[in-house]
Amino acid sequence: MGRPRSLPRRLPARDSADSGTDSHPARDPALPGPGLPPGAAMHVAVPPARYPDLTGSPGAAAALVPAGQQAQAAPLLGAPWKWGDPRRSCRYQRVSELCSNIWIWKGLACMAMVTVILVTILLVKITLDLRAIERIPAVTGKCIPCPGSWMWFRGQCYYFSKEIQDWDASKEFCSSHNATLAVIKEPSHLETIHSYKGNEDYWLGLRKGGKGWQWVDGSPFTNTTIQLENDGQNLNCAFLSMKQIVTVDCTSLRYWICIKESR
């Protein structure tokens, strides 16, 4: 008989806990496990990574940063920025640019306000000048032909005296200026004199003679334009009051009005 075969010796099972390794070989997660149909994937639960809690602990966070990089990471770790830090200078540069822009806008606003004020003043001045021009009587084809202190109106020059004297002296003054005491024959003449005379009384070129009341140009007086009051004895000269012609003694003192034709 031949020599009997020796059976292979069974090695004792090693405790996986003692050896620190798994007794089963590693399995590919993509391959289906035992008892799973082909094509089915096996999901393996992986525990989340655990990181130390650094909330509220700048010191612990700084311990994780290399010593050479702690100065650059200081703003991120909650430490204040130091003088000379590039981030601090950038921050101040932005604030400076913002302030400079604000001053530029303020300057532009002031310039706009000054411009509006100047334009308003100019418009007001132009308006006042135009109104003053409208008050000047229009003369067609020639300049105003009245001397200084004389007033032009409707082709005639009027002079209202600032002094008082008797009727004869007033008549001589007007004659020396190539004029006569005022003669009122039309309502327009009366309206013109009333609009400028004010409340004062003025001598008129009206006197009573041998032919009754006559104007200094020799024409007779009629009451169609204005009434004559106080036609008494020795009242041979007349002046213009507020509403009528009043007769008085020729030696009394009054203001006077001279009229002459314009050139």
Automatic annotation (TrEMBL):
Annotated membrane topology: Single-pass type II membrane protein
Key words of the record = Lectin, Membrane, Transmembrane, Transmembrane helix
Region Disordered: start-end pairs: 1-39
Kindly indicate whether the keyword Membrane belongs to this entry: yes
Q: What is its main location?
A: membrane
The GO terms this record gives for MF are:
carbohydrate binding
Which PROSITE patterns does UniProt cross-reference here? C_TYPE_LECTIN_2 (PS50041)
Domain C-type lectin: from-to ranges = 153-259
What are the subcellular locations of this protein? Cell membrane
Q: Where exactly are the transmembrane stretches of this chain? A: 103-124
Is Lipid biosynthesis found in the keyword set? no
Alphabetical GO CC annotations of the entry are: plasma membrane
- Known InterPro entries for this protein? C-type_lectin-like, C-type_lectin-like/link_sf, C-type_lectin/matrix_domain, CTDL_fold, NKR-like_CTLD
- Which SUPFAM superfamilies does the annotation name? C-type lectin-like
Could you tell me which Pfam families the record lists for this protein? Lectin_C
Gene3D superfamilies xref list = Mannose-Binding Protein A, subunit A (3.10.100.10)
Q: What is this protein called?
A: C-type lectin domain family 2 member B-like
Q: Please name the source species.
A: Chelydra serpentina
